[in-house]
């Protein structure tokens, strides 16, 4: 397989997963409006922080309203990580590499892109938004199932899975890092503290943003609380959107690819860091810094993958010398 084809397939997996994650985040934040009392304001600016697109957002995230944030995250073409751009990039990558996958996969992505493009002006309407986002989520899941059942499980399939699981691990750490503090402002409009009484509602929204609530209840025989949720979403190896599970999937995929020793070593280091973490202690102080380090190491995995399989040998050697 040519390196440029491999890179496009890898990014196809990332952009499709990113599209689903964006849809989940906005949909769950919208549903918070129904779960919380009228005096509690939902912090829409936190979605900008979670997605890491603050440098492209022209307003103060603390003052951002629902309409502005939703349009920016879903339909703004100036935002490289918006839903419409993610689907556009996925469509272009799948168009160029469509001979490597079932034709139905290309058709599904193409249809989904046009579906969003034709409805971009409706995303600020809560009623229309919910229908649109649920369609995105179900379509990406259909794409994942289609490849699992109808695509040869070869190197191309492994590259899509690598992109998907790397993107998923990154988003899961971002959502945990945001936690309840970033989901809502500290104070209500009247100036009274509002976070503590709704602690379980806020952590439930974190779980639901990853469709993790029911699986969490199966694994944890306790009320929804910060310690148990963070432990479940970071260290559980059975739940597909937990960071530990994503790393295990990455490891399995990489074993099938040539010259994967350096990337595998990096994954093993992250797994050790995750396994040995005392999350109960970190929640008292230092969780944010710990997750920042985890995100940096997950981000560095992308560069190691690119150096190993996507960049020309001379350029990869130059990059390695710079990082040494």
From TrEMBL:
Protein name: Alpha-E superfamily protein
Biological classification of the source: Bacteria, Pseudomonadati, Pseudomonadota, Gammaproteobacteria, Cellvibrionales
Transmembrane segments: none
Organism: Cellvibrio fibrivorans
Annotated DUF403 domain residues: 1-310
PANTHER family from the UniProt entry: BLR5612 PROTEIN, SLL1039 PROTEIN
InterPro entries reported in the protein's UniProt record: ATP-dep_Glu-Cys_Ligase-2, DUF403
């Amino acid at each position: 397989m040519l390196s440029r084809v491999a890179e496009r397939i890898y990014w196809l997996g990332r952009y499709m997963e990113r599209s689903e994650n964006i849809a989940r985040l906005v949909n769950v934040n919208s549903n918070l409006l129904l779960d919380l009392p009228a005096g509690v304001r939902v912090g829409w600016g936190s979605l900008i922080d979670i997605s890491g697109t603050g440098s492209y957002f022209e307003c103060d995230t603390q003052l951002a309203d629902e309409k502005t944030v939703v349009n920016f995250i879903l339909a703004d073409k100036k935002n490289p990580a918006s839903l419409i751009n993610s689907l556009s990039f996925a469509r272009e990558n799948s168009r160029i590499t469509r001979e490597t996958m079932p034709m139905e996969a290309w058709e599904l992505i193409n249809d989904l892109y046009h579906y969003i493009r034709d409805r971009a002006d409706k995303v600020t309407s809560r009623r229309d938004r919910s229908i649109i986002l649920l369609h995105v989520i179900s379509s990406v899941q259909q794409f994942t199932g289609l490849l699992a059942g109808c695509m040869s499980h070869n190197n191309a399939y492994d590259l899509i899975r690598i992109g998907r699981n790397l993107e998923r691990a990154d988003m899961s750490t971002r959502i945990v890092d945001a936690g309840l503090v970033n989901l809502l402002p500290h104070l209500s409009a009247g100036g009274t503290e509002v976070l503590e009484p709704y602690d379980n509602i806020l952590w439930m929204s974190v779980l639901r943003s990853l469709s993790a609530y029911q699986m969490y209840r199966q694994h944890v025989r306790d009320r929804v609380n910060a310690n148990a949720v963070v432990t479940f979403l970071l260290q559980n190896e059975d739940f597909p959107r937990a960071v530990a599970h994503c790393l295990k999937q990455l490891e399995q995929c990489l074993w099938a690819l040539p010259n994967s020793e350096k990337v595998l070593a990096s994954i093993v280091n992250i797994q050790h860091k995750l396994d040995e973490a005392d999350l109960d202690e970190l929640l008292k102080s230092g969780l944010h810094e710990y997750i920042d380090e985890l995100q940096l190491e997950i981000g560095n995995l992308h560069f190691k993958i690119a150096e190993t399989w996507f960049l020309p040998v001379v350029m990869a050697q130059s990059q390695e010398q710079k990082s040494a």
